[in-house]
Design a protein that fits this description.
The complex is a heterodimer of chains A (279) and B (269). Chain A is mainly alpha-helical. Chain A is built from 10 helices and no strands. The chains are: A mainly alpha (279), B alpha/beta (269).
Chain lengths: 279, 269
Amino acid sequence: MNRTATLKLPQYSGRNLTLGLVRGADTVRRRLQYPALGIALLLALWWWGGMVIANNPDTMAFASFAPGPTLVAFWDLVSTGAVWSPIESSLQRVGLGLVWAIAIGVPLGVAIGYFLQLRQLTHVPFQFLRMISPLAWMPIAVLAFATWDAAIIFLIAIAAVWPITYATAHGVQRIDPMWFKVGRNLGAGPYHTLRRIILPAIAQDVFAGIRLAVGVAWIVLVPAEYLGVTSGLGYAINDARDTLEYDKLAAIVLVIGIIGYLLDAICVRLIKRSSYREE
Amino acid sequence: MGARITIDYITHHYRGQEQPTLDGIEVAIEPGESIALIGLSGCGKSTLLHMLAGLLIPSEGCVRVNGHMVTKPSPRWNMMFQKPSLYPWMTVRENASLGLIFQGQRKGMRERVDHLLETVGLADKADTNVQALSGGQQQRVALARSLATDPEVLLLDEPFSALDAFTRVSLQDEVNRLVRERGLTLVLVTHDIEEAVAMADRVMVMSANPGRIASTLEIPLPTPRDRASHRFVDIKAELMGYFGATRLPVTPTTRDIRETPEKPAARAA
């Protein structure tokens, strides 16, 4: 096999290279054609909506929501660098909120998944708390925390903690009981059981929970930033509305969507990397 | 070296069951002896093995290894299960090293584990993820994992029953050889009569409801054992008799099936 390959390669290398390139391009095209179509459809819908708004006398004032003005404003935000400061503040808040949610959610989830009694004990209270919109905590958060920033981080954390807790607990419950038995049989104590068995077994579930949490946190961030603070993407939206800069407003929405998409893509990578299953 | 195991009058009740699962079991196992426990499903043989491993505490009585009461699992006695249950996020070497990691015996761990992997024929797979291995290879890793902490007792809970026939026979012979080389005390739970005859010095037949040792059979054959020899086949037939499955159900005294072609030979499980 190998020998024939080395013999033939020099002879056909030119042709092989062209063929390879063509084939590579073909794969790329096949992988991208539907995602590209999806983006095009969304753009078309946006463009059509802009047309409808511009042609209706009642809504004409909002015509700069259309793709054209928005993309110009977007380019303006990026080229002047004005876009980076709100992104930085927002990402910082989401990041800190998630750190808290992970620090609380993962240990809590492991405990709930491992101990049946704790699962039963916490079920009603947690499901009750989980169903309360994080924004409903806003007045309490404002009272309880000295700074607006801390209040926003609290709101993000309280929204993000549930998906992480329950994804972790679900992962622990799914662990093959034989893995615990084998561990016990080999003399594993609580520390080794956690470090060598539970954590590697649930890594993928934890990251799946973090992915959900990132989505929730990113959604909660904007309304949370409507209040009090004078930085961040939510504030930028509110500010643009007050100054009637609808093109800028739509451009910020675009930024929020793009960053949200990127955050999700990072989480997908983490989930894949944390999987122990062989392809 | 193997340890002496004594099972001191064990009676066990599972919660909510009228009959005891085990009733007054009393056995002494000599150092280096190989014992097979056979019996129908539900006779409590696996329960008894879990007690030897310290994974289950009997309601009455106790297990002693070299005179010490077994209260929890220990690296000095190790159990192999029906499924290898390797950790899929680890390589072969990491799986085999676990007992030593849990014991905190990291000194010389790598040499020791690599030597064991060589013994079970997996030296070239040390850095492979265990998911890439066949069932037989996975059970070999489990064997290396069990032997890594240098136990005195090896407990086997039907560890070859999920393997194909060829792999099963070769692993039985291999474990047999390793156990005898190291002088380990072996307790094997199985419902495969041939396996019991191939590996044990003494076979204990258990009855169910309540679980008792119904009879004991010495197997005075030298190892390695020739599975086709007359004596091997005879002992197998005798054991099958305990379960109502002889080679010839109508004329059990007949030695050779070929002499009575008109009667179909009973196929024992």
